[in-house]
Design a protein that fits this description.
The chain is of the alpha+beta class. It has 4 domains: about 30 residues, no CATH class; about 45 residues; about 160 residues, Ribonuclease H-like superfamily/Ribonuclease H (Nucleotidyltransferase, domain 5, 2-Layer Sandwich); about 70 residues, Beta Barrel (OB fold (Dihydrolipoamide Acetyltransferase, E2P)). Helices cover about 30% and strands about 20% of the residues. The chain is built from 11 helices and 14 strands. The protein has a 5-stranded mixed β-sheet, sandwiched between helices. The chain has a 4-stranded antiparallel β-sheet with strand order 8-11-12-13, with no helix packed on it. Strands 9-10-14 form a 3-stranded mixed β-sheet, with no helix packed on it. Strand 5 and strand 6 form a beta hairpin. Helix 4 packs across helix 5. The radius of gyration is 42 Å and the shape is flat. The chain starts with 7 loop residues before the first helix and ends with a helix.
Length: about 400
């Protein structure tokens, strides 16, 4: 600036420096002082960054989950350092704006299914679902994983959730899924699944399907599904569905429900005691799966790709088959009597056979194979018929053959 003809006073005014400082800079009297390089201090988090990178490569970006994991591995620092480290790696996430709706004490529970890919079960690839129920006021949560999303499983999970909470809310808000709603008219009239409606009446709650295409109506459980995905499911190692549910109960009791909720500022377990839920029914509702099967000639009933034996006297009859929640298979005759009971097989093309069911039957008799056979009759070798009819040969005198030999020698 000085070389371009700008005065020292003007330079001082434009830069905000004192005129003496400007003059010293022009005269070369200001010599920059190099600060000695500061030694890089190792953070408490540094020994765990490789582990954090590995977990993020597995899709785990929940800072609190990762904080718990490295604390178990010896990390003594704070949560803030973990949050700051993970923040640049997180994928962007945007949500539309909605209006918050709060419910009264014990008024409502919200229910939703989450899809969690596939699981190998007894050699079969099955869909894996997660049932999530969240109480509207306390934000207490219950989750359960299952490979079936039918009405029976839906009711099983409801009953387990109510038992976990210690009571029943006055209404349950859910989607218009077929296990609860058969059809919804254009005017909004709801035709419920009769079995689910019976279950709701027996348990003492009012089912309340929300309006289609309005997921924000049950935003509490929607956020609950995302919370399960990010805080429990991400990076989970498991062997089967039972193992997942065992870990899920530990997570509910030690992480999800004892935490301070971001909206209420209180722990869901603390608020659960104030929910004033309705008492549980004296007797649990029978949520068994009911179907009918015909007994084959081999005294076996086919069910879910497996076979189960029944008494031989019932061959050819149609029986009622009940699959119970504790994985038993009960078979009833026309009079309503239990004629057979089996443990439910989990694989495919397997047999559960009771030898008593075949008592009195004759042993199986081997039969010749059902082939079309042809039999060949060979006559006596000395009989002319054994060799068939010989061709007729002309008889000639021997002199003819002698003449032929002479011609050959010539």
């Amino acid at each position: 600036m000085y070389r371009k003809g700008i005065s020292i006073s003007e330079i001082a005014r434009q830069t905000g420096h004192d005129r003496k400082t400007v003059r010293k800079a022009i005269n070369g009297e200001l010599i920059p002082v190099r600060q000695p390089a500061q030694p890089v201090r190792e953070r408490k988090l540094d020994p765990y960054t490789d582990y954090l990178q590995q977990r993020m490569s597995e899709g785990v970006y929940n800072a609190r989950k990762l904080y718990r994991e490295i604390r178990e591995r010896g990390y003594s620092g704070g949560l803030t350092q973990v949050i700051l480290y993970i923040q640049p790696f997180r994928p962007p996430h945007r949500e539309p704006a909605t209006m918050r709706f709060e419910t009264e004490l014990g008024q409502q529970a919200q229910v939703d299914w989450g899809s969690f890919g596939y699981i190998n079960e007894a050699g079969r690839q099955r869909n894996l679902y997660c049932f999530v129920m969240t109480l509207g006021w306390s934000r207490a949560m219950y989750i359960e994983f299952t490979t079936q999303g039918d009405t029976a499983s839906f009711m099983h999970c409801h009953q387990h959730a109510f038992a976990y909470f210690g009571g029943v809310p006055r209404e349950v808000l859910h989607d218009n899924l077929k296990s609860a709603v058969i059809h919804r008219d254009a005017d909004g009239t709801v035709h419920f699944n009769e079995r689910y409606l019976d279950f709701a009446l027996a348990m003492g709650f009012v089912p309340h399907p929300h309006r289609p295409y309005r997921p924000q109506t049950k935003g509490k459980v929607e956020s609950g599904v995302r919370y399960v995905e990010g805080n429990f499911w991400a990076g989970l190692h498991f062997s089967d569905v039972d193992d997942i549910n065992t870990q899920a109960l530990v997570w509910l009791d030690t992480v999800a429900n004892p935490r301070v909720h971001g909206t209420t500022g209180e722990k869901p377990f603390d608020r659960l005691s104030q929910e004033h839920l309705q008492p549980l029914p004296d007797r649990p509702f029978d949520t068994s799966t009911i179907s009918y099967r015909r007994v084959g000639r081999d005294c076996l009933v086919r069910y879910a790709s497996n076979s189960y034996s029944v008494p031989a006297a019932l061959a050819g009859q149609t029986l009622l088959v009940k699959e119970t929640e504790d994985r038993r298979l009960l078979l009833f005759d026309a009079a309503g009597e239990v004629v057979a009971e089996h443990r439910l097989l989990r694989g495919r093309h397997q047999w559960s056979m009771n030898p008593d069911h075949y008592a009195g039957l004759p042993a199986a008799v081997s039969r010749p194979p059902r082939h079309h056979l042809a039999f060949q009759s060979i006559p006596d070798r000395d009989s002319p018929a054994a060799w068939g009819t010989a061709p007729e040969v002309e008889q000639r005198p021997l002199s003819v053959y002698a003449q032929l030999l002479e011609e050959c020698h010539d």
